[in-house]
Structure formats: structure tokens, C-alpha cells
Amino acid sequence: MPDSGTLRDDLLAYATSLAKYLTSPAGNALDRTLASAGDDPITQQLRDQYWDARYAQPGQIAAWAVKRGELPEATDPRFVLELLVAPPHFRIVLTREPLDPDLPARIVDALLHGLLPAADGPPRSRLS
Q1: Distance between CA 48 and CA 50 in Å, rounded?
Q2: Cα dist. 16→74, 88, 122 in Å?
Q3: C-alpha distances in angstroms, 10 versus 3, 53, 81, 102, 106?
Q4: Could you give the CA distance from residue 109 to residue 117 in angstroms, rounded to a whole number?
Q5: What is the architecture of the domain spanning 7-113?
Q6: Domains of the chain, residue spans
Q7: How confident is residue 54, by pLDDT bands cut at 50, 70 and 90?
Q8: pLDDT, average across residues 91-102
Q9: pTM of this prediction exceeds 0.85
């Protein structure tokens, strides 16, 4: 994934790509399989490999954002990823709700700006 120049655009591109993957037959099946698989050593190794690969890209996104001054150096890229990917995985695996087209943008805006309204105006993102 190329550096778009802004943290929001990088996160949005990643979240949009993830949503597209999770709604594909292969992505949907893999996500549900990983969630329901046991914890035997081979399955754990495969799950670790999958998530290690997933963590690499957001690590780069966070590094770019730190370099641009958009995030503090102490930012934990793995935590950023967990906040970004949890809602779509929750919908696919647990509630089986569809991923609305605007969900990636809503997640990214909530991640970057929080849930509270700006001090001088309305809420920053639509969260429902």
C-alpha cells in the first residue's frame, strides 16, 4: 500500500481494502474459519502468521504518520490496527451484519477523532 500522504487516507485505504476482502467469499470464509478454529499448535501457528502479516502494513502506516508528525512516536501500531479492524471482524464473525459502504470512513473518523463532539460543534462522525 503506497503512502497517500495523510494518516486518514492511509487508514481509510486499509479499512476499505479489508472490508472488500471480508465481504468476498474467500475472505469471509477465512475470517470465520480463523475465528472458529481451535488452539492446537498448528492452527495457532497459522493464525499467528496471518496476523503477523496483517500487522506489518499498519506498522508502516503508523511509521509514515509519525514521520509526518501526525502521530506521536510512542504510538502502538498493533493497537491502532486492533481498533481499526475489530468492528468489521465483529460484524462478519459475530453478528453477521453487512458491512455498509461508509463503515470504513466511520471507523477511521471515530479512531482519529473519538466519539465525543468537537468542543465547538456537532459530533465529528456518524457512529450509528
Answers
A1: 5
A2: 26, 10, 25
A3: 7, 17, 12, 16, 14
A4: 12
A5: Orthogonal Bundle (1.10)
A6: 7-113
A7: confident
A8: 91
A9: no
